[in-house]
Write a structure and sequence with these properties.
about 170 residues; Rossmann fold; about 10% strand; five-stranded parallel sheet
């Protein structure tokens, strides 16, 4: 079973993923952040503010490898449809490979985290709050486009959000 934890930038996805990992669940870290950090460290240009298309291809390849390796139950920090939101906001036609992967995705449930009131950017997440809110809506739209009705996770303290996710996943 694959459960996606998604939402706009700064919605607390990684915090929930870290909580779940601390509880012993298998988690998949965010591919976009992973690649961007590696590119920054190596001086590469496949970053959101550089070669955006190369970044998207690397994200897709890594995400597919990670998802194919899942055995049993896992929580994903973003799923394939998240990538579509970035194509939508940049008004770029998505890669056929991404669309095919989205059509073939098999998520047990998608959890959509409502935006936190205190948005903070960092070295990888450089969007401003307005862009983050737009992306949040586009992420929701992308999952719905492929037949998912994400479970909305309200703003709560991290432990309560995690408990909410586990209850709705039927794991508590």
């Amino acid at each position: 079973m694959k459960f996606v934890i998604t939402g706009g930038p700064g919605s607390g996805k990684t915090t929930i993923i870290d909580e779940l990992k601390g509880m012993g669940f298998v988690v998949l870290t965010e591919s976009a952040r992973e690649i961007t950090e590696k590119e920054q460290a190596s001086g590469g240009n496949a970053v959101p503010w550089g070669d955006w298309k190369a970044l998207q291809l690397k994200i897709l390849e890594l995400q597919l490898r990670k998802e194919r390796a899942v055995k049993g139950t896992a929580f994903l920090d973003r799923g394939l449809m998240d990538g579509l939101a970035y194509y939508f906001i940049n008004d770029v036609k998505p890669l056929k490979g991404l669309l095919d992967a989205c059509r073939n995705a098999n998520y047990s449930k998608v959890f959509f985290l409502e935006m936190l009131p205190d948005f903070v950017d960092d070295a990888v997440r450089r969007e401003d709050r307005e862009t983050a809110l737009k992306l949040s809506g586009l992420v929701l739209k992308a999952y719905r486009k492929f037949g998912y009705e994400p479970v909305r996770v309200p703003v709560l303290p991290p432990e309560e959000r995690t408990r909410f996710v586990l209850e709705k996943a039927g794991l508590r």
